[in-house]
Design a protein that fits this description.
The chain is mainly α. It has helices at 6-15, 23-50, 58-67, 105-110, and strands spanning 84-88, 94-98. The protein has 4 helices and 2 strands, in the order αααββα. α1 (6-15) crosses α2.
Length: 123
């Protein structure tokens, strides 16, 4: 039995047009996904420990993906740790989500406009 749920793999396969997968294939893919994720986590923990931090950052994971020769993820750069909130949909079924910062629209609207950049010239 794998920690990764084969039903998730089946859903992704159906979303990209693969109609039916054998149960043995699903089990094999879930084992492979679990192994690959543990590889990435082990490498990223090495980067975290080497930089003497106790919080795993997205930069650690990006470095681990680079070391493992995996295509990098774009759009997940963060200089501060993410805050996660927890919501419950039933007994024993928590859902975690990233809490968004509240934006004060009044302050944003009344802020001065940025300076207009100079025109581009070639010399």
């Amino acid at each position: 039995m794998s920690v990764w749920n084969p039903d998730n793999i089946k859903d992704v396969a159906e979303s990209i047009g693969i109609a039916s997968l054998n149960d043995d294939v699903l089990q094999g893919l879930s084992s492979d996904i679990e192994y690959r994720l543990s590889q990435v986590l082990e490498e990223s923990l090495k980067f975290m420990r080497h930089s003497k931090r106790s919080t795993l950052s997205t930069q650690d994971i990006a470095q681990a993906l680079r070391v493992l020769d995996v295509e990098p993820l774009y759009g997940y750069e963060s200089t501060r740790p993410l805050r996660f909130g927890e919501a419950s949909i039933g007994p024993g079924q928590p859902i975690f989500y990233v809490e968004d910062e509240e934006v004060d629209f009044e302050k944003l609207i009344n802020a001065p406009l940025p300076k207009v950049p100079r025109e581009i010239t070639l010399t």
